[in-house]
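Exam revision sheet. Question 4 asks you to relate a sequence to its structure. Input first:
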Amino acid sequence: MNNKPDYLTRDGLEKLRAELDQLVNVRRAEVAARIHDAKEHGDLAENAEYEDAKNEQAFVEGRIQTLEALIRNAVLIDENQSSDHVQIGSTVVVDSPDGKESFHIVGSAEADPGAGRISNESPVGRALLGHKKGDKVVVHVPSGDFTYKIVSIG
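Answer key, structure tokens:
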């Protein structure tokens, strides 16, 4: 099993715990009831409802395992961090070829690029880590290289 640390904000960890609680205490019972009801309909070999319920059960159990591993390996991101260099949890404003952009660097479990939350494991996140305000950072991505100038770190 993967034991690398999963960097999470306190809010992100609480969301994962709430999702795990919902799956274990609500969805698991709902799926079990669906399987039971489907068994009542007779021949399991040609019972699409039974097959669908079993597939949902597999998904729910897999997600439970994933969440348990994420929570077990969680490392909370320090919210009272230094702003002299980029680290996980930093919000970085950069000048890019497209103008000013803002990135909040989070762990991969909380990444949402559309909302400006990028993973520390992404090419941009990895390139920015450790740099200071005023640094020019070259990011290597499949579509080419981009140069960002760090304007501020929060």
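Marking note for examiners. The chain has a mean pLDDT of 90.
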